[in-house]
From TrEMBL:
Keyword field: Oxidoreductase
InterPro entries referenced in this protein's UniProt entry, alphabetically: Flavodoxin_fold (IPR003680), Flavoprotein-like_sf (IPR029039), KefG/KefF (IPR046980), NTF2-like_dom_sf (IPR032710), SnoaL-like (IPR037401)
Species the sequence originates in: Vibrio astriarenae
Protein name, per record: Flavodoxin family protein
Gene Ontology MF terms in the entry: electron transfer activity; FMN binding; NAD(P)H dehydrogenase (quinone) activity
Recorded superkingdom: Bacteria
Organism phylogeny: Bacteria, Pseudomonadati, Pseudomonadota, Gammaproteobacteria, Vibrionales
Length: 313
């Protein structure tokens, strides 16, 4: 199984002063890696969908490596996304094949950092311009991570930068990607991601046994939820009994998952869709934002604070 798949979206990688260095360094430093050079695999833009989907299925971490072209991905990478992220693979009633995998966007940007600002000539931040990719990840069930990008990655002799400077930036950029991949493959962050997934799978069942939840909770956990405030394991049990009495069926869909380091350990920002039927037969369709604070005890993540805010419903 390939733990890491890198999708190289540069249309002419051999001519690149930066992306080629990054791709080469990733290939040397990361074990169990599959580098998919779209420019050599598909020079005619005829994507082998089955081969690409199999490469994604074999990976735990997906890296999209590309230069920033007109505030987006190059056309070749866009074609790859359009073809490979197909119905019932990446979305649709059976489209859960990528769910739970990690997505890293690694981007080289020619323009200076100050230009990607409301007062700069590009007006928007890189994060804002990447919202379409971020939403694609959410719809496909991928765990989206903050993009890794470097500005000033363009070399025009006598006009922009020196070749040595650009190549040094590319090396430093590759190191950041390698470090992020290493963190995800062995990391506490991945454990948090697995906890989030398991938590809502158990919530869908609404079983009588509370034990699967208690093992994920700090003894002094605090819940701030629409039903009130609940403290500790005893408080969770009270809240959970209310939920079991309130709902006959429940289905939770994770629409957004963002996990970031925090002072106590990690913070998980979640957008969750609840579709349920109450004990009285009423249908419920609610969108909520959840914020979890987690710390690690005995090498296991524990929820210390759990807050739910209703967005619509």
């Amino acid at each position: 199984m390939s733990k890491v798949v890198v999708i190289s979206g540069h249309p002419e990688l051999e001519k690149s002063n930066t992306n080629k260095i990054i791709i080469d360094q990733l290939g040397k430093e990361i074990e169990s890696i599959d580098v998919r050079r779209l420019d050599t695999l598909y020079p005619n833009y005829q994507i082998d969908v089955e081969a690409e989907q199999q490469a994604l299925l074999a990976a735990d971490v997906i890296v999209l490596q590309f230069p920033f072209y007109w505030y987006s991905v190059p056309a070749l990478l866009k074609k790859w996304l359009d073809d490979v992220f197909s119905y019932n693979f990446a979305y649709g009633s059976k489209g859960d094949k990528l769910k739970g995998k990690e997505l890293i966007t690694s981007i080289t940007i020619g323009g200076p950092a100050e230009s990607y600002d409301p007062l700069g000539y590009n007006h928007f931040t890189i994060e804002q311009l990447l919202h379409p990719i971020q939403q694609t990840a959410y719809l496909a069930g991928l765990n989206y991570h903050a993009p890794i990008y470097t500005h000033g990655m363009v070399y025009i002799p006598g006009v922009y930068n020196t070749l040595e400077d650009v190549e040094a930036k590319a090396q430093a950029h590759a190191t950041r990607v390698i470090d992020k991949v290493a963190d995800l493959l062995s990391s506490q962050e991945r454990q948090v991601s697995a906890l989030v997934k398991a938590w809502f799978e158990n919530m869908d069942n609404l079983g009588e046994d509370e034990t699967p939840f208690l093992s994920e909770l700090d003894e002094n956990v605090v819940f701030h939820v629409p039903e009130g405030e609940y403290n500790g394991h005893a408080g969770f049990k009270d809240w959970y009994r209310q939920l079991r009495n309130m709902f006959d069926t429940a289905s939770h869909t994770l629409e957004q998952v963002v996990i970031t380091p925090s002072e106590v350990g990690f913070k998980a920002d979640l957008r969750v869709r609840l579709i349920a039927r109450t004990a009285s037969g009423e249908d419920v369709n609610v969108l909520v934002n959840e914020e979890w604070q987690l710390s690690f005890k005995s090498d296991q993540p524990k929820i210390v604070r759990y807050q739910v805010d209703v967005v619509t419903g």
